[in-house]
Specification:
Elements lengths: L1 H19 L22 H8 L4 H13 L6 H13 L21 E3 L3 E7 L2 E2 L5 E2 L2 E8 L3 E3 L23
Antiparallel strand pairs: 1-6, 2-5, 3-4
Length: 170
């Protein structure tokens, strides 16, 4: 068994190395982007390019350079990132910067606690005593302060009742 295993391992190793030495496929990696977009960049460069509020302007600059046939080098990328980050960012700068809307009149609200009612059935303990307790109320989540959150609408918290039908069996 051992004599058969060694030649099998050598044969497998040789066949795998032979396949890799044939140079099958393309030798260079090529990435083709969509029309009018950034074509080839590393993940780190894409992260640097899209980091910040005015990322769309940086992407447009690099895309235009690549569409013009220029190769964007590391120094070009650093210059773009430095020049774009040093600009004053006002309300007109970023195209897609979400601006949070402040609360009109923030009032503190105390949220309701969640209480669970547990029914404990009568049981006999190890000493033979009969215990009849009933309900135990326990607080699952405590009350919390919330600021800037709208008050819960009482219409949506209405109690649901089953559909009432008239009794027609008379």
């Amino acid at each position: 068994m051992k004599f058969l295993l060694l030649p099998l391992m050598v044969l497998t190793t040789l066949s795998l190395t032979a396949c890799s030495s044939l140079m099958v496929g393309e030798t260079e990696f090529g990435c083709k982007g969509m029309p009018n977009s950034v074509t080839c960049m590393s993940v780190r460069d894409v992260h640097k390019l899209t980091d910040g509020e005015n990322y769309q302007e940086k992407i447009d600059t690099v895309s235009q350079m690549q569409l013009n046939g220029e190769v964007v080098s590391k120094s070009d990328m650093d210059n773009i990132l430095k020049s774009e980050n040093s600009k004053w960012v006002g309300t007109e700068s970023g195209q897609y910067v979400p601006v949070p809307k402040p609360a009109a009149n923030p009032q503190p609200i105390r949220s309701e606690s969640m209480v669970m009612r547990v029914l404990i059935d009568p049981y006999e303990n190890t000493d033979g005593d009969l215990i009849i307790t009933g309900y135990v109320y326990t607080e699952i989540s405590p009350r919390k302060w919330e600021v800037g959150v709208s008050r819960p609408d009482r219409k949506h918290n209405a109690v649901l009742k089953p559909l009432q039908t008239p009794d027609n069996r008379k």
